[in-house]
Structures are given as structure tokens and as C-alpha cells.
């Protein structure tokens, strides 16, 4: 069983490398197998095919994001904890934009992780944010408040990643301090929601 798990890990690691080099749309069975130094049959025997491989990659990517968020310092202060989770989320996206795109965009058009896998993935990440929000928000507002904070985080990260992929805009000072602008945005959204 360990050999089988090692082989799956080898393919998943290779798939991350392929996505980083060729973008998520470049995740073909042949390319991943070549990057893993194995035959295409390994993808079929280990994952049942490309869709299974992509599902495993999706699950692993969210495991990594969940671990990064779980490692964020917790203080017991809701705003500080939300900001720490937000920073972990942004750092994860900036460290590997292709992995982030695979997780949150339809960058592989013919892949849909399905509702069960998406629910597990989001519960492991969004659930951490929801728990931090719950420390300061009445129970009937936790889900909505956490969602609005997440949407702001996601939007700001998306804008930053889009900007990083293109020629820099002249005289656009925001790009000089992405982390600071991001934190300011998270705090502003939090204060606006907490004041309701």
C-alpha cells in the first residue's frame, strides 16, 4: 500500500510542476507521466485516469492551503486571527498562482471536482475562517460575514495575480505594497461587517 501511495504522491508532485510550467490547462496524462518519470499507465492504475488524477490534485492543493491556514498564528483576537488566515491565504496564492488558479478558476475546462469534493475542500479552509469569525460575530451572522470576508480576500488576491501576470501599469502605487493594501482591505471589510 505504501508503494501505491508513494506513486500517487510522485504523480501529484509532478502534476504541480507541470501546472507551474505549463499552466493548469497543460495537465495532460502524458505530460504528468513524463514529469513523474513514469508511464501513462501509472496515471490510469493510480487514479483511474485524468479525471481521477485531477481530483486527487485538487484535494491535495486544498490540503496544502488548509495546512498553511492552520499554521497561521492564533491569538484569540478575532481580527488578528482573521488577518493571519487572510495572510496565509494570500501567501499561498502568490507562492503558486497556477495551483491557486486550478483550485479556484475553471482553468481546466473539462474538470469539475464535483460538489462532495468541493464541499470537503472548502470546509477545510473556509471552515477555519468561519471559526475565527464566530469568535466575534453573533451565530446568525457567522456564515454570511465569513463569506463576505472570504470574497474580499479572494477578489483582492485575484486582482493582484492578474496584475502580476501583465505589464506593470505606470504610476500605480498599489503594486508597490500588495501585502499592505491587502491587509488594509481585509481590516476595512472586517470593521464594516463588525459594525452592523
TrEMBL record:
Keyword Coiled coil listed: no
The reply to whether rRNA processing figures as a keyword in the UniProt entry is: no
Q: Which InterPro entries match?
A: Homeodomain-like_sf, HTH-type_TetR-like_transc_reg, HTH_TetR, MT1864/Rv1816-like_C, Tet_transcr_reg_TetR-rel_C_sf
Point out the DNA-binding stretch(es): 28-47
**Top-level taxon of origin:** Bacteria
Q: Ranges for the HTH tetR-type domain?
A: 5-65
Q: Name one GO molecular function term.
A: transcription cis-regulatory region binding
For this UniProt record, give its keywords in alphabetical order, as a comma-separated list.
Answer: DNA-binding, Transcription, Transcription regulation
What PANTHER family does the database record attribute to this sequence?
A: HTH-TYPE TRANSCRIPTIONAL REGULATOR RUTR (PTHR30055), TETR-FAMILY REGULATORY PROTEIN (PTHR30055:SF220)
Q: What is the protein's name according to its record?
A: AcrR family transcriptional regulator
* Annotated organism of origin: Longispora fulva
Amino acid at each position: 500500500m505504501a508503494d501505491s501511495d508513494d506513486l500517487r504522491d510522485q504523480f501529484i508532485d509532478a502534476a504541480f510542476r507541470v501546472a507551474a510550467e505549463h499552466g493548469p490547462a497543460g495537465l495532460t496524462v502524458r505530460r504528468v507521466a513524463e514529469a513523474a518519470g513514469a508511464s501513462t499507465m501509472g496515471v490510469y492504475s493510480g487514479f483511474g485516469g485524468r479525471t481521477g488524477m485531477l481530483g486527487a490534485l485538487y484535494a491535495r492543493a486544498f490540503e496544502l492551503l488548509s495546512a498553511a491556514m492552520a499554521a497561521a498564528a492564533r491569538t484569540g483576537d478575532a481580527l488578528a486571527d482573521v488577518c493571519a488566515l487572510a495572510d496565509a491565504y494570500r501567501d499561498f496564492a502568490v507562492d503558486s498562482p497556477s495551483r491557486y488558479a486550478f483550485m479556484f478558476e475553471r482553468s481546466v475546462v473539462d474538470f469539475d471536482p464535483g460538489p462532495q469534493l468541493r464541499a470537503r475542500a472548502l470546509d477545510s479552509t473556509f471552515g477555519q475562517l468561519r471559526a475565527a469569525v464566530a469568535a466575534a460575530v453573533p451565530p446568525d451572522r457567522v456564515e454570511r460575514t465569513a463569506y463576505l470576508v472570504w470574497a474580499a480576500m479572494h477578489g483582492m488576491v485575484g486582482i493582484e495575480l492578474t496584475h502580476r501576470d501583465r505589464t506593470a501599469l505606470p504610476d500605480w502605487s498599489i503594486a508597490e505594497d500588495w501585502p499592505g493594501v491587502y491587509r488594509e482591505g481585509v481590516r476595512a471589510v472586517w470593521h464594516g461587517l463588525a459594525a452592523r
